[in-house]
């Protein structure tokens, strides 16, 4: 079995499956060859007709991700391509805590204003420690939006650390509770899928937040109206946003609003989608989808 890799799985996984699978290296032009039947990708590429020829023979697209917003699903459906990705409901995926740990790290760093302190352009100065008011964990209310795998992990860990935690989930809570979470949270952590939530956070929801809120998104960039976020941050200088994702992050971003804003103002920090990028978590994800593929082929034969 041959798999054309736009990006390679983890080395340990390649070594483990090398008797059953040949992993073919991506060419420099990154366009998928016409004769490739199985393609592996992560998040660096947007898979559409520009990268996947209309006359290609592709049958399976493997992506070790829970979301598929980097894939043109309509085009894949048209070509009858089966997508194999992570099912967040599966027990093995529930055991992956890397994104939850990362979101927790961002929350704790935000509480102690580490991102702001690290941006101070001065020599070591003990007086800097008094520039901002910070408090012990019990003084903060953390709002968790989304109570799936990541959200439930955060709720448990934050409560154990002494934070007051309030939460909202679209499928479990009445809409009125969302307003309460946005109104009362000192820090808001977003952990929802992009499906059905495009521009979920818009002007109306940002205006419900505190004027000194810390807003953290480690889910998908598509859930935020970027223009509305920039307006909110510019208007509320004491608010701060930390984003691990932005819209269309697979594409060459020349004039993205958030990237431009980050250059001019200090109350926005953007990271390169680090959430699930721990080595052990990626090995579990790669192993999961490759075994899925092998099981499909073994059933056929």
Lay out the secondary structure:
Blueprint: E1 2-5, H1 11-17, E2 22-25, E3 38-40, E4 60-63, H2 73-78, E5 82-85, H3 91-94, H4 98-111, H5 114-118, E6 141-145, H6 149-160, E7 164-168, H7 175-184, E8 187-190, H8 203-206, E9 214-217, H9 226-235, E10 240-243, H10 257-264, E11 268-270, H11 279-300
Parallel strand pairs: 1-2, 1-3, 3-4, 4-5, 6-7, 6-8, 8-9, 9-10, 10-11
Q: What would you note in describing this structure?
A:
This protein is α/β, with parallel strands linked by helices and 301 residues long. The chain has two domains: 2-88 and 278-300, Rossmann fold (3-Layer(aba) Sandwich); 97-270, NAD(P)-binding Rossmann-like Domain (Rossmann fold). Helices cover 34% and strands 15% of the residues. The strands form two sheets. The chain has a six-stranded parallel beta sheet, sandwiched between helices. Strands 2-1-3-4-5 form a five-stranded parallel beta sheet, with helices on one face. Helix 2 (73-78) links the parallel strand 4 (60-63) and strand 5 (82-85). Helix 4 crosses helix 6 (149-160).
